[in-house]
Amino acid sequence: MARSDQEWNGIYKHMDAGTCYVCGKPVKTGSAIYGLTGAHYDCEVGTGRAYEAAVIRIEDALANLGVVAQRPRVPEGKGKVAKKAIAKAVAAIEKETGAKLTGVLFWNQKGNFRGPKWDLARWGLQFSMQLPNGNIVRGSSHSWATVTMCANLPLQAHEERDSLYSYNVEPQ
Ligand SMILES: [Zn+2]
Predict the structure, then answer these.
(1) What is the reported pLDDT for 74?
(2) pTM of the prediction?
(3) Distance (Å, whole) CA 113 – CA 51
(4) What is the distance between the alpha carbons of residues 109 and 70, in angstroms, rounded to a whole number?
(5) How far apart, in whole angstroms, are the C-alpha atoms of residue 34 and residue 32?
(6) How remote is the CA of residue 123 from the centroid of ligand 1, in Å?
């Protein structure tokens, strides 16, 4: 069974204090140490979890290489950078149209469909807009720039040609 975050937090406290999370005694320099948890090697083996810890270490290494997402990720559109990009895109569209946006949903092109081969926009929004005349319509936006670029640069919204309430939002 994998260790919970709570278990790891307990282990990290012992690592910081230089003690073994299994027996609670100091882990002296020069003693046999189990690298991943900082516990006495013999104590770690006694837990029967040394192998599991090694597997987790390999999975973490693979995750760092982008092979597999090991740790739970922030849901798409909920991270700090995404929230900033979304807020700026909404502001750009509101500035361009004079409309008020509500019910904003974020979409993100899946990795397999990114890149020059597919030539698809990277991310965008779907929303309701209250027009200056009071009417409420559905609208959408898309961006070819990355979410990170849009979070960090001034944005401008342009209505797409031949489409109604569909906007291209890009850094200026
Ligand atoms: Zn110990």
Answers:
(1) 64
(2) 0.54
(3) 37
(4) 21
(5) 7
(6) 50
